[in-house]
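Can anyone check this?
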Amino acid sequence: VSIGNGSSQHGVCVVGLGKIGLPLAVQIAGKGRRVIGADVNQAVVDLVNAGTPPFPGEDDLDDRLSAVVTDGMMQARTETQAAVFESDVVIVVVPLIIDDDRQSDFSALDAVTEAVGRGLEPGTLVSYETTLPVGTTRNRLAPRLAELSGLVAGEDFFVCHSPERVSSGRVFADLRKYPKLVGGINAASTESAADFYESILDFDDRPDLERGNGVWPLASVEAAELTKLAETTYRDINIAFANELAVHADSLGADISEVIAAANSQPFSHIHQPGIAVGGHCIPVYPHLYLQGDPTALMPSVSRQINDGMPKYAVDKLAGAIGPLQDKVVAVLGLAFRGGVKEAAFSGV
């Protein structure tokens, strides 16, 4: 069931040329695989085909994108179905957002799955890197691919979840730094995914990891989905505890920075830092994806309530310090959800 041995005649289609998908596509092309990037945005496609990143701030992307486009190893298109037909590996990296009711909006992912299914050929590996509620790959995506293609999932084609674990601005470094997790809908799918990712990724030495750095096959597709939600939801829960500590420290007149530093001097304490909000496209969103699979879970739900309440707490503290804020002009220094990015997603500002 092994597919792909690094030979350039094996095409790879990366669907979604955003801040995670485009650097991944460039990484793959740089390892000698012919890559077709698919994106619904014609402007993005035109810029990529010109060797120009469609967004700023991604370390080393300018030179690496220009090189693979110039060498003819990468092109971009808007026609996903045709790109899939020419490829034996398909990687899906399109966003899964939550709606006003904190439920997953699958519209973009379902649309891509429709196009992939209609272009699917026997022997193809389809890897979903989008972070998903547990059970989505096996129960929603793989059956739809099978229905549209007329092929048998796990036999005629292979399906895995391999969650992206990188941060925008440092994608190439993060691809080397962290183990690449893969979990298939069956053993054949996991083996195909592991073979592929081993052929296109390089890894830093990580003596701190007992298992070593590299591609980590997991026991099931559900294990891969759950691992990504576990590592991100943990951070939201940790920050919620830090925020509760900060509120309590305020009531005591204690310096929360001093308290956390002192607590973390003991090696079993790893308290994060408090703040006005938990920002970005991942950490404030993925606890809701976790809760869709485990709706009775208490800690993810409570952590969201705590962290969502911190902007109000900050404004109330300001009003308490200087009086009513009506007709006041307030300068907020720091709009982005973290340093080095130019986005305000869920930043609380």
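Reply from J.R.: I decoded it. Residues 221-252 form the longest helix (32 residues).
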